[in-house]
Design goal:
The protein contains 10 helices and 25 strands. It is α+β, with helices and mostly antiparallel strands. The chain folds into 4 domains: 224 residues, no CATH class; 90 residues, Sandwich (Immunoglobulin-like); 79 residues, Cadherins (Immunoglobulin-like, Sandwich); 109 residues, no CATH class. A hairpin with a 5-residue loop joins strand 23 and strand 24.
Length: 512
């Protein structure tokens, strides 16, 4: 069972997992058109890989059927499982394509590419993926289909812990960076990035299908069968690697006679075994070719089966994301996360100019500016050497003024907030009214403010309070006012985490 059971899966799965970090973290920056176009380049590469793998799978199924015709007693049981995998894989790939089309239709409306979902006008649309996937509930359906396909593969390989574990990790739909899979994959993600992620899943489905069929073919124990047709194919751990990281591919001979030991040649050089490994030194597209030489019997000439493959190499890029906004605030604990595809966060280093950075673990930092701009750069350890991964410059601003409002509890103990409006006088004064200030639940940044003093104005009279709570004098005045009296809460002074005291706008209420 060589070639399938012994093929290491873990490095490839780590690379796929890191892609989510790249896509998610980029959204905290101002995503440029070059980055969006870069997603299309990756998507085009994935689509090419899918087509290549589908052609290889077709040959595998043809060989499987030929084996069954010669020895159905040994092969039929495994062929039925293979056909089950084929049906499930085809259905899942088709559903992923329909998923893409619906998102593109939502984004591009009447101009949508409904046939291929490849030509996208509104690549940066953040609403379409979240609407279709989350609001309409389709992410849940996709998650169930991925998990169902994963369970099928794991079930068919339950006797082989190594490959079964690899399939378990392949379609992991658990939390990503502390967020549910569906939210991390589709919320606030541009169309271009989501289409690439879906293409990646299609590639995973076809790759796992190829590994599964090869595994089932080997499980037939059909080593005594003679075949008259041979094909070579290449299965790479990943078709997209970072510069400085190794590219690995397993090269297999399908429908082989086990009495003959094949030999693999690349560029005229013989491999030790069937694993090709190289470390590219620059970014770009790489191609390589070779042949598998199958020893002949009875002094005949060896048979040579040619193959060729290609892969893409990208430059290492650090992703620096501000968890609150694309700016930093003075006197505030700004939360920053750093990551880089294919590099553990423990191997990343952050340097800062114009501020301080306190590490919080897992690539997270608390940054406090000390200048009008902050420069952050990241380096990482790649293949034993330190590599500069880039950086970003942030603008520094003062925290914006919060909005003041009155807070009290109604007769049922429910907390009520009043920005501008009317209140029932007896209920208001009985509910322990206070004045507070904040940005509101929908604000991208949250900060705590303390109200130090305020005044209420009724007619021409003003009544003061030293603190956030209404003074007894203020409560007494409100309690004795006739219904319909307007009250203005003014001279509100509040201080935030930056230590700056602010004069906030007034709040107008009517006491009924």
């Amino acid at each position: 069972m060589s070639g399938t059971k012994n093929a290491p899966e873990t490095p490839r799965q780590k690379m796929i997992g890191m892609m989510y970090l790249v896509l998610t973290a980029m959204l905290a920056l101002n995503v440029s058109s070059e980055i969006l176009n870069g997603f299309k380049l990756v998507d085009d590469s994935l689509r090419t890989s899918i087509q290549s793998i589908e052609e290889q799978n077709q040959r595998l199924y043809q060989e499987f059927n030929a084996m069954n015709e010669k020895n159905p007693a040994k092969v039929e049981e495994w062929l039925k499982k293979a056909n089950k995998v084929r049906i499930e894989a085809d259905e899942l790939v088709a559903y992923l394509h329909r998923f893409k089309v619906e998102i593109v239709k939502r984004a591009d409306k009447e101009n949508a590419d409904t046939l291929y979902a490849r030509t996208i006008d509104r690549k940066d649309d953040l609403e379409a993926p979240a609407f279709f996937a989350l609001k309409q509930g389709n992410a849940k359906i996709l998650k169930e289909k991925l998990e169902s396909y994963q369970q099928l593969l794991v079930g068919f390989t339950s006797g082989d812990a190594r490959i079964s574990t690899a399939f378990s990790n392949l379609f992991n739909t658990g939390e990503i960076n502390g967020k549910p899979w569906a939210v991390a994959t589709f919320e606030s993600m541009p169309v271009s990035a989501v289409i690439t992620i879906l293409s990646k899943y299609q590639t995973d489905v076809r790759n796992s299908e190829a590994k599964m069929i090869q595994y089932l073919k080997e499980m037939t124990d059909e080593g005594d069968a003679r075949v008259n047709q041979f094909n070579a194919f290449v299965v790479a751990e990943s078709n997209y690697v970072m510069e400085g990281q190794p590219y690995k591919a397993n090269i297999y001979l399908a429908a082989m006679d086990t009495t003959k030991k094949p030999v693999v040649f690349i560029g005229g050089s013989r491999l030790q075994g069937n694993t090709y490994s190289t470390t590219p030194g620059r970014s770009g597209e790489y191609t390589y070719s070779g042949y598998i030489e199958l020893p002949a019997i009875g002094g005949a000439q060896p048979q040579r089966l040619p193959f060729n493959a290609k892969y893409n190499v990208g430059k290492p890029v650090a992703i620096i994301s501000n968890d609150d906004l694309n700016i930093l605030y003075r006197g505030f604990d700004n939360s920053i996360s750093i990551s880089a595809p294919g590099i553990p966060t423990d191997n990343l280093r952050l340097s800062i100019t114009g501020g301080t950075a306190t590490p919080k673990g897992s690539g997270r930092y608390i940054v406090k500016p000390t200048a009008n701009s902050v420069e952050i750069s990241v380096s990482g350890i790649v293949s034993g050497r330190q590599v500069n991964l880039g950086g970003n410059t942030y603008r520094v601003k003062q925290l914006p003024d919060p909005k003041p409002y009155a807070v009290y509890k109604d007769a049922n103990g429910n907390v009520k907030t009043v920005f501008d409006g009317s209140v029932h006088g007896p209920t208001f004064v009985a509910g322990g009214p206070t004045v507070t200030a904040g940005y509101g639940e929908d604000a991208l940044v949250q900060a705590n403010f303390t109200v130090r003093s305020f005044a209420i104005r009724i007619g021409r009279r003003t009544y003061n309070s030293n603190g956030a709570r209404f003074s007894q004098e203020q409560i007494d005045v409100i309690s004795n006012m006739p219904s319909g009296t307007p009250v203005t809460i003014q001279r509100i002074r509040a201080v935030g985490p930056d230590g700056i005291e602010r004069n906030l706008s007034a709040v107008a209420i009517e006491v009924l």
